[in-house]
């Protein structure tokens, strides 16, 4: 999804999340508070991050970028 499309989705009230492994294992978020990616949560393992990612995606307003 390009930046313009992300902005439209966020303006409609959605939150975008993505997985990241560098510099640490984390979930990043982009929402109405900032148009830049920022760390939502850090994790010790990829498995724990992936479980939390699935939990977050159960919310109708959270999308995987």
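^ Assign residues to that structure.
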């Amino acid at each position: 999804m390009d930046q313009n499309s992300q902005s439209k989705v966020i303006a409609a009230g959605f939150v975008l999340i993505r997985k990241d492994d560098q510099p640490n294992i984390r979930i990043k978020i982009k929402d109405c508070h900032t148009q830049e990616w920022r760390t939502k949560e850090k994790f010790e393992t990829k498995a724990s991050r992936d479980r939390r990612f699935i939990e977050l995606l159960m919310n109708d307003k959270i999308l995987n970028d």
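Residues 3-64 form one domain.
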